[in-house]
Amino acid sequence: MTNFCEIKLKKVIVLIFFSMFLSCFSLSAALADSFPSKPIRIIVPYPPGGGNDVLARLFAPELSKVLGQSVIVENRPGAGGSMGSASVAKSAPDGYTLLIVNTVPHTAAAGIYPKLAYDPVKDFSGVALVASNPYVIAVNPNLPAKNISEFIALAKSKPNTIYYGSAGTGSVTHLNAELFKTAVKVDLTHVPYKGGGPAIADLLGGQVQMTVENVFLMTPYFKAGQLRPIAVTGMKRSSILPDTPTIAESGYPNFEIIGQFGFVAPAGTPSDVILKLNNAFNKITTSPDMIQKLNGQGTDPRTVTPEAFQAILQSESVKWLGVIKNANIRGE
What we know:
This protein is an alpha/beta fold.
């Protein structure tokens, strides 16, 4: 009799859990069917005018057309992007608040700021990857190095006498240069600035001799002959700098740094909602009009599944936290 009661009780428990599962599944599907029923916000964790902001404003009106709801872009700068990111991490996980990220500074924040109020990987769900771009090693024309091989030889012959400028301690430009230093085994001296603008101004003036910056941002200076590109950091040459070789093809085959831009939502956002957003972003990214706009910004269109984007966030985190630890970088 006891065994019969135990078996019957187990069956009841299984049925209860199965019913709960079906209820959750039905609720998730219902949320996805009705989503979106109100405006969506895209948070840019930097001031207006930067790469993240430009991309957010390119995608917002197109996302609005596809989903049939208003999409509002809000800039929430501060603390290297961590203030805006923290606000999204703490938002309701319903798909109505998204964050645009460059995977380099987004994942590196955990190593730069020890008291970060969120986990850049665990507290977010990858929604869609939309674009990527390489960086370029740019030097002042007065530096006697016409290509990357000559630059490395010069740096090795005179350790720490070449100064590189960055947008600040822990910035993308700082991390890029530190990874480059480790990969090619040279010693360079870091000069941090309060933003990319002052760093470029001093590079033009010769106070520093080198930087590792966004290709699109630096191209006007190359065209004017004010700066010299000596290598790009992607695995393939940039479409807007076709004559500039990659570091990979210059004797360092495994070297690659690319900025990968995409949208994330708070962790716990229903998978059906994320999939609906992913499909919308992928549709926009692969449209001829958006491809042309992205290429005009020096970026390549990218589309992946939400799971693949989450895996990219994880791998980027491992990569950049390793660079930060190796270089002993701490936020200011």
